[in-house]
Amino acid sequence: MQFIDLAEVELESGSGGDGIVTFRREKYVPAGGPSGGNGGKGGSIFFTAVENLQTLLDFRYNRRFKAENGGKGGSKNCTGATGDDLNIEVPCGTMIYDTATDELLVDLVEPGQTFKVVAGGKGGLGNAHFLSNSNRAPEYALPGQPPQQKRIRLELKLLAEVGIIGLPNAGKSTLISALSSARPKVADYPFTTLVPNLGVVRKPSGDGTLFADIPGLIEGASEGAGLGHDFLRHIERTRVLLHIVEATGDDPVGAYQTIRQELTAYSDTLVSRPQILALSKIDAVDEEEVAEIAQALSAIAQQPVFLISSATRTGLDPLLQKVWQQLDILEAQRNAEKLALERAAFPVLQ
To answer: Which distant-in-sequence residues (6+ apart) come within 8 Å of 313 by Cβ?
Structure first.
């Protein structure tokens, strides 16, 4: 499946139906009077977040959407048919921007969350609406409202809880394939991973946690170098960053510092996000050299370094235990903040 995370589309709601001018001309009804009905309302366009989509691929070739117009009013005070609304499904994590103002209209995060982007035009009033004591035979009606038109930008940010980051060939794809049932392409050359890979890793409790392998981070990624500029946005929603450094690289400490610099340049909040540091491919390096690299990384990062090998599954269990522990801490903090807000909104009456 091709991964598309940006798309621009044009939307047009349905126009309202016109009201009409008619008079009753029925036998045995001498004072028939006006009977022109109102026009029907035009259809609106809604966007709904769903769980079964992972990409904006559907919008690559279909870039224009239009809702149904409202029907024209009828005689005998009949209102025109209401135009059908158009409901467009997008992946959870889709942000909708107005391209004219670059304003964020909505961030569709929760499954089933729905937002009306353009509203259908109201139907025009028929001449029966204007009947009054001073005007017994109105000969005019109103047209329906025109449709709303809007050009929007869809931007998908993955909703993974754990983001796996590191330079190309650090072993990110191999790790996600070892931890989950995901089977990304793995090879020993830069930018093997061209799109974010997703994998569900099971907790001991049985719950699934979504991991994302974020590709393309190199020096200058925050300025558009390599693939990083396109995919750095996907890190923003992750709660924990799993930073992978290759033990077989020429300068593991420099590799770690490069990624840290790019995260800082892209967003100040990313560097402060909880990070877990792991040294990968330790099966391909002498034990003494692994120990020296780990010690140097730990001194720079001011945190422990997990030693792992995805090929032999060495060290993966302790690494996952740390991930679960960190996620539990974040969940407890979020619950405490939510409780504090609720207490502030509804203080106990003394």
So the answer is: 178
Residue 248: closest CA among 307, 170, 314:
170
Let me know: does 252 contact 286? Beta carbons within 8 Å.
no
Strand order, beta sheet including 103-108: 64-66, 6-12, 149-156, 94-98, 103-108
Annotate 121-162 with DSSP letters as a single string: PPPPPPGGGG--SS-SS-----PPPPPPEEEEEEEE----SE
pLDDT digits (tens, 9 = 90+) for 256-303: 998 888 788 777 777 788 999 999 999 999 999 999 999 999 999 999
Q: Write out the two tokens for 91.
A: 């992946």
SS3 200: strand
Please, which residues bridge with residue 95 across strands? 107, 155
CA distance 187 to 192: 6
- Higher pLDDT: 292 or 55? It is 292
DSSP one-letter string for 263-282: HHHH-HHHHTS-EEEEEE-G
φ/ψ of 40, rounded to 5, equals -80, 155
Q: Please tell me the predicted confidence (pLDDT) of residue 235.
A: 75
Q: Taking the alpha carbons of 158, 162, 166, 168 in that order, is the dihedral positive or negative? A: negative
pLDDT in tens, 224-252: 444 444 566 777 778 899 999 999 988 99
Give exposure, 149-186, as e/b (b: 16+ Cβ within 10 Å).
Answer: ebebbbbbbbbbbbbbbbbbbbbbbbbbbbbbebebee
DSSP lists the bridge partners of residue 156 as 94
Q: What is the pLDDT of residue 230?
A: 59
Mapped onto helix, strand or coil, the DSSP state of residue 81 is coil
- The pLDDT value recorded for residue 29 is 63
C-alpha distances (whole Å) from 91 to each of 96, 135, 143, 162, 272 are 12, 55, 38, 18, 27
pTM of the model: 0.68
